[in-house]
Amino acid sequence: MTLLRFERGGQLLAEVEASAGDVLIDVARFHDVPLHWRCGQGTCGTCAVRIRHSGQPRLVQVGRKERNVLLRAGLCDAAAAASEQWPDAPATVRLACHLSVEDTPWCVSLPAD
Question: Is the pTM value of this prediction over 0.85?
Answer without folding.
Answer: yes
